[in-house]
Automatic annotation (TrEMBL):
Residues 26-188 form the RNA ligase domain. This is RNA ligase. Keywords: Ligase. GO terms for molecular function: ligase activity. It comes from the Bacteria. InterPro entries: RNA_ligase_dom_REL/Rnl2. It comes from Blautia wexlerae.
Amino acid sequence: MEQKKFMDIQRLKEGYADGFVPGDLIVIQEKFDGSNAAARYDAETGKMVAFSRRHTLDQNNTLNGFYNYVQELNPEDYKDVPDYVIFGEWSGARNAIIYYPENTKKWYVFDIYDVREEKYLPQSEVKAFAETHGLTYINTFYVGPFVSWEHVQSFMDHPGYGEIQEGIVIKNQTRLNDPNSRLPFVVKIVGDKFHEVAKMNHVKKIQDPQKLQERTEAQELVKSVVTRRRVEKELYKMRDEGIIPTEWCEQDMKTVARNLPNRIYTDCVKEEPEVVRAAGQYFGKFCSVISMNYAREIILGPTGAK
């Protein structure tokens, strides 16, 4: 059976913050310091298959007992979902954080990937699946609308499995399965004691809630003036000026990208100078991103927007 590897979760940095806007449905979960482990039902053998992050497990390579744990699961409970790869953290070995004894030798499920649909399931379905199959769902702090990065940071240092918490994982359910790798829909924040980069000042810089909040507020300001209507109007002007053809299509996107963002920026400087000043250094970048998203939607249809 071919192994499906779990996504690489990126550490939160300033640019990634743009992928979370107020109102997005998010889930905040505890980052568990265990071993990435997965299980899937094999329809050909009628058995459960266990995986580490990179390998298929067997009796000679058990990932500190995870293989044995999976063999004790009842395959009949999973034969209706052979396309589901169930991901979790296995607490079978001692890692950097020492958890309470009662929280070891357990599998904490946090995601499910459907290989047929090629997408991750919403967390509400993951939680329901874990509960109905007698699996343990990962400690979840918050399910609701994204408010601010300061609000997100408030869930740090609330360990649920031991005296120390490694960090948190933030999952944007509104953008679930969004292929835009420049703005991942899942990010992590690691506590200072367990940061994964050497320079502490760099960690503080990229996770500064005030800085992230400034970006979020600036993004909302830009969105208030860089509207679909403004972009649509500018595209029609470009058509009338002969920059793009009357019947525009995907082949015209490069021309649009070279011209549209600057035209929208210039128009906003002229018509909405107060907003441009208020957004400051962020206006140009957000203006470009938002205007091109609307352009893709207008020219390519809803599936073209990133």
